[in-house]
């Protein structure tokens, strides 16, 4: 946005949010993979303001730390014991000493406002030359929100809070959404006149509107056409509603970018994820955190990816993965579990009921069935038989297993780390590998089979197994006698 007038943004983030009934400050609850205040800060930054000031109070250190991580360049200001949005803005203005431009006030619990809505609000404010322009919305149920009271010529006279409203005022359906653009100088002048003589004993920012009108400095309102995006989050119900609204917006964005989403209602994509054209997301798929999915990949159904990288044309089915990398052409699942630092190489395979943790599976290598691979490096074109286990933990320390290229193992192998299997080696079914295996060797751990005749009848008398064993023995003896 370009203008000769400077813009500063104040984000109100001092409230406790008691209706959330949570130990976590309201503005730190997340939708779409980011805290509520994170979305507000992103939108504020998109307006290219000269300064962003965030006012904190409740759980001050936690909120300030989170805000600084999300937006390192912001200024943190503390609100004192005097409650209310007016006092919060008054505190923020101490960090804007000498600033004479426009001040945009945003609430940290209104995450869905988009930059174009705010840009239009600022342009309306500047073109009208008013001291304040507020964003309003018309809703069917205005309970909990301040009402916008207009005069006979449709001008804004004042804003009345829910607890201070008369029955007639409470019936008004135009609400204040807590977003304002002020000229800095009249804002400073009038805030000093605001008191706390109201039902909540707070210093209301909304009282400035009536004072500016009284001083004939110009008050205007811009009614948003997207009321759902302008509403704040005050409880868990509204949190989930905001999440659904944001997710629908995010899914539509990626569909327009060339991503196929089979069932938008059951597909969740965090705003921090990145998807390429021709990705396909099947139903009940969650793409969370900083996950990146390359072109042609298919994910789902029933899959959750958190902070993962997925290569071109990979396929991931009914899988839970966190901090994992699945390279181009690889297949994972169904019913696989990729834990932190798992890597499946190009054209690799992790199959049914396989768990991989802190391990790399080389190009073209396969771990098809019923296996645990932990702290392991697997080379190229390896095939591990069903039931492979890398026993990485000795009750004190985790150890690594190294499996070279072109290794083929039999079913139900246990590799007791630390151990190295050389290139091209083979292992027999049921082997427990405790020592390094040289390249090209066949490793076996076979004990002679011993059959103890009559053991079941002697040690489990009266059981069904003993009965059928005795009958079978009798039939065999009869055959042998004939």
Description:
- With 482 residues, the protein is α/β, with parallel strands linked by helices.
- The protein contains eleven helices and 38 strands.
- The strands form seven sheets. Strands 12, 13, 15, 16, 18, 19, 21, 22, 24, 25, 27 and 29 form a twelve-stranded parallel β-sheet that branches.
- Helix 6 packs across helix 7 (206-214).
- The longest helix is centred in the middle third of the chain and has 21 residues, at 236-256.
- The relative contact order is 0.07.
In short:
The protein is built from eleven helices and 38 strands.
Provide a count of the helices: 11
What is the count of distinct domains?
A: 2
Overall SS class: alpha/beta
The main sheet comes to: 12 strands, parallel
* Subunit organisation of the chains: single chain
- Beta strands, count: 38
Low-confidence stretches: none
Helix content: 10-25%
Q: Determine Rg (CA atoms, Å).
A: 33 Å
- What value does the average pLDDT take? 94
Task: Name the shape in a single word.
Answer: elongated
* CATH architecture descriptor of the largest domain: Alpha-Beta Complex
| Distance linking N and C termini | 103 Å
Query: Superfamily at the CATH H level of the largest domain?
Result: Spore Coat Polysaccharide Biosynthesis Protein SpsA, Chain A
Strand coverage percent: 25-35%
CATH class of the largest domain: Alpha Beta
What is the fold named in CATH at topology level of the largest domain?
Spore Coat Polysaccharide Biosynthesis Protein SpsA, Chain A
């Amino acid at each position: 946005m370009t203008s000769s007038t400077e813009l500063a943004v104040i984000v109100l983030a001092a409230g406790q949010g008691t209706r959330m009934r949570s130990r976590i400050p309201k503005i730190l609850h997340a939708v779409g993979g980011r805290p509520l205040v994170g979305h507000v800060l992103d939108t504020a930054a998109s307006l290219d303001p000269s300064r962003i000031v965030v006012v904190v109070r409740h759980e001050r250190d936690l909120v300030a730390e989170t805000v600084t991580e999300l937006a390192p360049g912001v200024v943190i200001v503390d609100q004192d014991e005097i409650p209310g949005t007016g006092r919060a803005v008054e505190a923020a203005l101490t960090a804007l000493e000498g600033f004479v431009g426009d001040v945009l006030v945003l609430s940290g619990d209104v995450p869905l406002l988009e930059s174009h809505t705010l840009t239009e609000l600022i342009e309306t404010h500047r073109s009208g030359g008013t001291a304040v322009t507020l964003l309003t919305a018309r809703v069917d149920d205005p309970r909990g929100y301040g009402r916008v009271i207009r005069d006979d010529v449709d001008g804004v006279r004042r804003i009345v809070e829910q607890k201070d409203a008369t029955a007639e005022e409470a019936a008004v359906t135009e609400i204040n959404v807590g977003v304002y653009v002020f000229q800095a100088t009249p804002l400073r002048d009038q805030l000093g006149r605001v008191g706390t003589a109201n039902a909540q004993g707070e210093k209301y920012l909304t009282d400035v509107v009536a004072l500016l009108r009284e001083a004939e400095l110009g008050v205007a309102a811009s009614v948003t056409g997207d009321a759902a995006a302008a509403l704040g989050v005050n409880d868990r119900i509204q949190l989930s509603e905001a999440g659904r609204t944001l997710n629908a917006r995010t899914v539509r964005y990626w569909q327009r970018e060339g991503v196929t989403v089979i069932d938008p209602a059951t597909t969740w994509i965090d705003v921090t994820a990145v998807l390429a054209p021709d990705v396909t997301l099947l139903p009940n798929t969650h793409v969370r955190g900083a996950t990146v999915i390359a072109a042609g990949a298919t994910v789902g159904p029933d899959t959750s990816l958190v902070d993962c990288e997925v290569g071109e044309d990979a396929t991931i089915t009914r899988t839970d993965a966190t901090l994992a990398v699945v390279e181009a052409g690889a297949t994972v699942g169904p019913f696989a579990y990729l834990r932190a630092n798992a890597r499946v190489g190009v054209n690799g395979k992790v199959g049914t009921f396989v768990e991989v943790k802190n391990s790399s599976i080389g190009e073209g290598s396969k771990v098809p069935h019923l296996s645990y691979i932990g702290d392991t490096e697997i080379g190229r074109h390896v095939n591990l038989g069903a039931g492979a286990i890398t026993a990485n933990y000795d009750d004190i320390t985790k150890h690594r297993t190294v499996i070279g290229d072109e290794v083929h193992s039999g079913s139900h192998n246990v590799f007791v780390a630390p151990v190295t299997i050389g290139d091209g080696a083979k292992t027999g079914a049921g082997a427990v590998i405790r020592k390094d295996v040289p390249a090209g060797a066949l490793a076996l751990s076979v004990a002679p089979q011993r059959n103890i005749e009559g053991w079941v009848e002697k040690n489990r008398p009266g059981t069904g197994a003993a009965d059928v064993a005795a009958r079978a023995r009798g039939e065999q003896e009869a055959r042998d006698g004939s």
